[in-house]
Design a protein that fits this description.
Blueprint: E1 14-18, H1 22-33, E2 37-41, H2 47-54, E3 59-61, E4 76-79, H3 84-96, E5 101-103, E6 116-120, E7 123-127, H4 134-147, H5 152-169, H6 173-184, H7 187-193, H8 197-210, E8 218-223, H9 234-242, E9 245-248, H10 254-257, E10 265-268, E11 271-272, E12 275-276, H11 280-292, E13 296-301, H12 311-320, E14 325-328, H13 333-340, E15 354-358, H14 370-373, E16 379-383, H15 389-398, E17 406-411, E18 419-424, H16 428-435, E19 441-445, H17 452-455
Parallel strand pairs: 1-2, 1-4, 2-3, 4-5, 8-13, 8-14, 9-10, 9-13, 15-16
Antiparallel strand pairs: 6-7, 11-12, 16-19, 17-18, 17-19
Helix pairs in contact: 5-8, 7-8, 11-12
Length: 463
């Protein structure tokens, strides 16, 4: 994010627009919707602008832009002429006076950009491309408008009427948030949208009277997928947006973390090899303790919580402590990462089975079932195996797998930081050292790796 999105109250405050054409007209209309006191500066103006002048909706100075004195007292300035020299002068003068300035179609001259607006007052959504793609911003606005009924403004007004009553009943912001979330997901909203506002208010009064002041806590054990936030399930995203506290680990990507509710408390319990922020037993107890305090706890894990995610251990503790919970599966790394690397895990010509292996056991050893891993016509996927890669390759060769067997190591798969190194059991370790791959990585062993050259489709952004 290169610019901070903010909303400024410009009611009855001076806003100066320099320009007299259609673009200036659009900007003036936007300012008038926000009840600004608009002054227009231009030697000539369109008939539409002249109409606004005639009905005294805007002030008009029929002159060229000459100096910074014409901007004095303004809270913001917009330059909307087709003269680059004039636009640059307006920009420089406004900056000198510390007045926010927008120059249409010239991002480098702006200190703020005009967002594309979805107006459901008092709900207002502003979409900005930071001046890079205004047409795209408008396209996104139309998408949102189709999903957001006009009645949402009425919902906001009614919520405002009840705000003090809700605040009087619930002493904490958490309790108030839980109450409002229940209202917004229930039939009261449908009554408002259908125009039954009086009945909706009565229902809201009843809901407020019946609402408990203490809420039972719960744990959401959610799979965050392999990294790409677009791979989250709808249910995962919904729970991520309503949690009070999020307990997350190292394998959850920054992009996925961005979708957790903004004001939720974040607790990092990430693990690296031989480096545990909290032992697993303490994580289990932490989840139970937070829920017993009445909090909605999001336990967010990379991949799927039941595939090398220790989700089973955590819910055992929750069941023992009588804590309600729900489990939301995620796309496991083996599936997501292999797909983004262009490597199918099964293929009629190469592999009729797939084996998931964890690269180190609970006691930290690498005593794996080498015989099972060495069977032909299968794909072996090794989680958390980067540190033991050399030993894995050596043991597979020792147990009869050909040294020429294709292998791939994928770093931060499905994200824009994805890197893939391919080779064979004989030479892959040296290639990984040379390229300096770092965890999290996934290892895929099998003939299916040969297909990457043909099926590779995902191209991360460069740089």
């Amino acid at each position: 994010m290169q610019a901070l999105p903010i909303f400024i109250n410009i009611t009855n405050r001076l806003c100066v627009v320099v320009g007299g054409g259609d673009v200036a007209m659009r900007k003036v209309n936007t300012l008038l919707k926000a009840n600004a006191a608009v002054t227009l500066i231009s030697p000539e103006i369109s008939s539409d602008l002249l109409g606004l002048v005639n009905v005294k909706k805007i002030n008009y100075s029929a002159t060229c832009y000459l100096s910074a004195t014409q901007l004095q007292g303004a809270c913001l300035v917009i330059a909307a002429t087709d003269d680059h020299v004039v636009n640059m002068a307006v920009s420089n003068d406004a900056k000198h006076l510390n007045i926010p300035v927008n120059v249409v179609d010239s991002p480098s001259l702006c200190t703020f950009t005009m967002a594309s607006i979805v107006d459901r007052s008092p709900i207002v959504i502003a979409i900005s491309s930071e001046g890079n793609a205004p047409v795209l911003a408008r396209y996104i606005r139309t998408k949102i408008e189709t999903m957001l009924p006009a009645g949402y403004g009425r919902i906001a007004h009614i919520a405002g009427e009840f705000r003090d009553k809700v605040k009087a009943k619930f002493t904490t912001t958490q309790q108030r948030r839980i109450f409002w979330e229940g209202v917004l997901q229930g039939p009261i909203v449908e009554r408002i949208l259908s125009g039954q506002e009086a009945a909706a208010k009565l229902d809201l009064e009843d809901a407020l009277s019946a609402a408990p002041t203490q809420h039972q806590g719960e744990v959401y054990l959610v799979g965050g997928g392999p990294g790409d936030p677009d791979l989250l399930t709808f249910r995962a995203l919904r729970l991520m947006q309503q949690c009070d506290v999020c307990v997350y680990d190292k394998l959850v990507s920054p992009e996925v973390m961005e979708l957790v509710r903004r004001d939720a408390e974040l607790i990092y319990v990430g693990k690296a090899r031989d480096q545990h922020t909290l032992p697993q037993e303490e994580i289990n107890e932490l989840l139970a303790s937070l829920a017993l305090q009445g909090k909605r706890v999001l336990r967010l894990k990379g991949g799927d919580p039941f595939i090398f995610g220790r989700g089973g251990e955590e819910i055992e503790t929750l069941m023992q402590r009588g804590v309600p919970f729900q489990v939301v599966p995620g796309i496991t790394a083996a599936n997501g990462v292999s797909t983004y690397a262009g490597i199918p895990l099964t293929h009629r010509d190469y592999a009729q089975a797939c084996l998931f292996i964890t690269g180190h056991l609970k006691n930290g050893s690498l005593d794996l079932d080498w015989v099972a891993m060495s069977r032909p016509r299968q794909t072996v996927v090794v989680y958390m195996g980067l540190v033991g890669l050399a030993e894995i390759c050596r043991q597979l060769i020792q147990h009869g797998v050909a040294p020429s067997m294709p292998v791939a190591v994928i770093e931060q798969g499905t994200t824009q930081r994805q890197r893939v190194v391919t080779g064979t059991l004989q030479d892959l370790t040296e290639k990984v050292v040379t390229t300096q791959l770092k965890a999290p990585c996934l290892i895929i062993v099998g003939e299916v790796v040969r297909l990457r050259e043909k099926l590779n489709w995902f191209e991360p952004l460069k740089g």
